[in-house]
Amino acid sequence: xxxxxxxxxxxxxxxxxxxxxxxxxxxxxxxxxxxxxxxxxxxxxxxxxxxxxxxxxxxxxxxxxxxxxxxxxxxxxxxxxxxxxxxxxxxxxxxxxxxxxxxxxxxxxxxxxxxxxxxxxxxxxxxxxxxxxxxxxxxxxxxxxxxxxxxxxxxxxxxxxxxxxxxxxxxxxxxxxxxxxxxxxxxxxxxxxxxxxxxxxxxxxxxxxxxxxxxxxxxxxxxxxxxxxxxxxxxxxxxxxxxxxxxxxxxxxxxxxxxxxxxxxxxxxxxxxxxxxxxxxxxxxxxxxxxxxxxxxxxxxxxxxxxxxxxxxxxxxx
Amino acid sequence: xxxxxxxxxxxxxxxxxxxxxxxxxxxxxxxxxxxxxxxxxxxxxxxxxxxxxxxxxxxxxxxxxxxxxxxxxxxxxxxxxxxxxxxxxxxxxxxxxxxxxxxxxxxxxxxxxxxxxxxxxxxxxxxxxxxxxxxxxxxxxxxxxxxxxxxxxxxxxxxxxxxxxxxxxxxxxxxxxxxxxxxxxxxxxxxxxxxxxxxxxxxxxxxxxxxxxxxxxxxxxxxxxxxxxxxxxxxxxxxxxxxxxxxxxxxxxxxxxxxxxxxxxxxxxxxxxxxxxxxxxxxxxxxxxxxxxxxxxxxxxxxxxxxxxxxxxxxxxxxxxxxxxxxxxxxxxxxxxxxxxxxxxxxxxxxxxxxxxxxxxxxxxxxxxxxxxxxxxxxxxxxxxxxxxxxxxxxxxxxxxxxxxxxxxxxxxxxxxxxxxxxxxxxxxxxxxxxxxxxxxxxxxxxxxxxxxxxxxxxxxxxxxxxxxxxxxxxxxxxxxxxxxxxxxxxxxxxxxxxxxxxxxxxxxxxxxxxxxxxxxxxxxxxxxxxxxxxxxxxxxxxxxxxxxxxxxxxxxxxxxxxxxxxxxxxxxxxxxxxxxxxxxxxxxxxxxxxxxxxxxxxxxxxxxxxxxxxxxxxxxxxxxxxxxxxxxxxxxxxxxxxxxxxxxxxxxxxxxxxxx
Amino acid sequence: xxxxxxxxxxxxxxxxxxxxxxxxxxxxxxxxxxxxxxxxxxxxxxxxxxxxxxxxxxxxxxxxxxxxxxxxxxxxxxxxxxxxxxxxxxxxxxxxxxxxxxxxxxxxxxxxxxxxxxxxxxxxxxxxxxxxxxxxxxxxxxxxxxxxxx
Amino acid sequence: xxxxxxxxxxxxxxxxxxxxxxxxxxxxxxxxxxxxxxxxxxxxxxxxxxxxxxxxxxxxxxxxxxxxxxxxxxxxxxxxxxxxxxxxxxxxxxxxxxxxxxxxxxxxxxxxxxxxxxxxxxxxxxxxxx
Lengths: 318, 661, 150, 130
Prior knowledge:
The complex is a heterotetramer.
Chain B: E1 4-9, H1 21-28, E2 34-40, H2 46-58, E3 63-68, H3 71-84, E4 92-96, H4 98-102, H5 108-126, E5 136-138, E6 142-146, H6 150-161, E7 165-169, E8 184-185, E9 190-191, H7 192-205, E10 209-212, E11 215-223, E12 226-233, H8 248-252, E13 258-259, E14 268-269, E15 272-273, E16 285-286, H9 292-296, H10 301-305, E17 318-324, E18 326-329, E19 333-335, E20 352-354, H11 355-362, E21 383-390, H12 407-421, E22 426-431, H13 441-450, E23 455-458, E24 461-467, E25 470-477, E26 482-488, E27 490-495, E28 497-499, H14 502-510, E29 537-539, H15 549-567, E30 571-573, E31 579-581, H16 591-595, E32 601-610, E33 613-622, H17 632-636, E34 642-644, H18 649-659
Parallel strand pairs in B: 1-2, 1-3, 3-4, 6-7, 6-18, 7-10, 18-29, 20-27, 21-22, 21-27, 22-23
Antiparallel strand pairs in B: 5-30, 8-9, 11-12, 12-17, 13-14, 15-16, 19-28, 24-25, 25-26, 31-34, 32-33
Chain C: H1 2-7, E1 12-17, H2 21-30, E2 39-44, H3 52-60, E3 65-70, H4 81-98, E4 106-110, H5 116-133
Parallel strand pairs in C: 1-2, 1-3, 3-4
Helix pairs in contact in C: 2-5
Chain D: H1 3-16, H2 28-32, H3 43-51, H4 55-60, H5 63-66, H6 72-76, H7 83-98, H8 108-111, H9 118-128
């Protein structure tokens, strides 16, 4: 996926150096990247307006967040903004350009490399506490902790979304979806009931989702009939994730941000992936955000599409 | 808050017999917004309507729910009544408690419960209704008639006489259709050509009628009042404007291999041909599949002999794009293929023919010059057997389930004509039923039997076996309860008729519905028989259902009247139940534009002020004159900005809630 | 179970397009072709007007089955509406199945204005299926803690 | 109709799987029948007689043993009524009452004639055995 109007790091200089050069040379007025957080593992998205602000710039193993969505607002401001796009972020970027949510002319997309981002929770789950610093050593991570040096396999602590990165060779991103499909209907129901019971309706999944950029979200709109109002009945509660998944169907790029940010660790991306899997099987392979012009699978049709009965005939036990 | 009146109709006993009206009325009184509920025996009657009007004024109602028959039946009636009483006509909702309740349920308690639910669903929807105003669109004062048979010609003539332009599109090289192939017509026995050809000439010479022969409709866009049609004028390879119609080319053409379609393949024609002597336009056409010039590059004899230099081998198909206010479908019929009816031996013997083939044989301009000759040896037949209902009334899938309607009468005609001209010929007719409703029809059939001695046999033919130059017809005589074998010289099959195959593709292009047999569906089987459910599309002739010539002509004129009524209007009221975009919510994502079948959605950059700042945003705008209100856009809109007036998200959800309460 | 089933009165919502299926339902009525009273019809202009949210809402409010009926593919009054509906509903049904909601509770069928008999058959058939499935508990509230019987 | 005859007619309809009401009395079955000359009751009457419950008469009829089960009537009936199936059903009813086998598998080889169509053989076996 390469576009002529995109910055590509040809000289293989560091991302920080690239960022500096872009602002220095005035190729953009502002730059969207990541800023060091209070802790080394909580880098957050930030806009840098001048060179001195770039002192806080960081691009390391904890820059998982997808910057595309911020451009919906940022690209509408005056001046040009450069944005750093990891390979996985580019799909969201394209999709948003396609939907006219990002004003393309005001953005300088900068493609940067990524070898996979880390999940701090996974590292902690290995019993590694008091972490001071993490360095990469081939497949291994050297972790400097207050209790002395530790190591772990890099593969074991990658973000979920990096494990099924579209640029990785091999692996099946639908593996978990298939596992759930193979369950009995009751098992599936119990699985989702136990997962969705954890939801606290914090809306983090929606807020981070690059496909959820509506001017006004239906869940915030009293007139939509599904608004997030006082819990007079459980409709909104139980169906929130279904409606959300359907809303982004055909537009979801499978960026995995929903699961990354979920404070309750609900594997929300599996719902979206199930839809992507179905779309691929029924209507041919389609990757939302592969380009910024093609029609999505739900806004086109074929005369000989499968009938809905196929759901009845397909696998998936009762 | 609305002030709603609920009116429950008894429909005589149609509803009242199964639904307890009082219970429904009583239950509605407690529904939110309802301030009045009453009932009446016939709500649609003048008295019923005035009850509604009175209640609207008396109770100062803002909307009414009528619990009655299907909205497809009387919605318009009640809307007019509401309008007359000063209400907006879209503040009317119908609860269908007849077709969807009283008529299909037997249990009174069950039906009453359902009627209450249906009524409260309508109330729930009405609570969210807002007055709607229909927009207006212009009317192109020109009609398109598809099909140039007697139906199309009659419709076109009537419309043209009223002063409107009409174009006829006919796929054959000439207008005339099936009637041009017929010999005589029942029940008067006057010759078909004598009454048809003057009409053909009238159509061709009428200043308001424009003929597109050897042409087909390629695509149709637009809507009532503004259809946009692409017509493909197939290449005739003859310049129609300079051809004098002398016919020398058709005589000199050395190719004689093509089957003459007009004579149903009973003889041959040249590669350049005029279908029949009275063809209109009288311009030949080159059959490129047969033409030696097109096949080998050599010949070109027709071009050499043409005194007008009208032959043009390089002619291409031409696409004409035109606007029409109304479309008349007059696509007609064909006899079915007899592949599924081997027992009648049609494929085994030349002497087994269809009735339409017999028409050609009997016709003075036909392949035998009007002499009744056996196709196999040109001999004079002595015994003829007619078989009725061949492929009609067949529920096994081999033929057609319906009665083809015209066969009884034309068979009587054939039998009579043969007996009159050749009294030495024995004529036997196998029939299942003889159906002769129609003016002077039964008298005609009885004359065939009584005056002309046609032997009518109640029974069916089971097998026709060609043996030693004869046809052994094995049939049953149910009155005598016996099986009989007739040694016949010719067998004539009254073959079922089916709609022309173009009906199906036209139905798709025009979104006009067709039934399981591919006949066009009428808007109402009794009350709107010549209109398609699609506004601006009208039906003429057999494309709507089997009919004979008098009926066809009557329907053609009726369709013309409907067209004239439409074209006489300067403006049409548009359906106000169209899509509507809430610009404040619109993301500008173009999803709605992608799915709109009419191209009714445009995007504009619009300024919005919020928090003291102005910003430009891309938002969707619906062209209300073009939108037909399907609602496809509403579902793909992620933010819910796109909604459908009259069927809003909130209204439908309120209906769901009311049903599921 | 069997006693429960006897008392089970299902609630079925049918979305019918105005041009074909609603007219088909009218024809079923005119022809006096019975189907169960638990089926309640909502008229929509086209099957493509049916938002999956409506289907979910019906289930959540206690419907035991939802059926969407439209013109046969190719016969849509609006030319293409039912093609979109077909994709949306296929996807929705598959997703519901993925959540463990009995997939037989949902159905799409194509009924033309001339198919009164088919309308009645389809409705009887669907109702029978819902009777077999019993009450819709799963989607009523996917998050409630009440365990379902297996 | 008498209860007994009604039951008999119902049995015939059940065994044959036909709906006699579909008959539109066109007579194509009788017209098609190659064994008509041998029959005392014509094929089309079979249908109406079942419809009217005259099963006893049918069971006594010669026709049921003359039908060759060629299925010409079934093939050509425009309404899908299947007179041959009705005749077969009546035969079945007669045989069940008689409790007798007219044809045994062991007798088949000696009766075999290569000219007999397979279908006729199968039909005969069904016809003359229980």
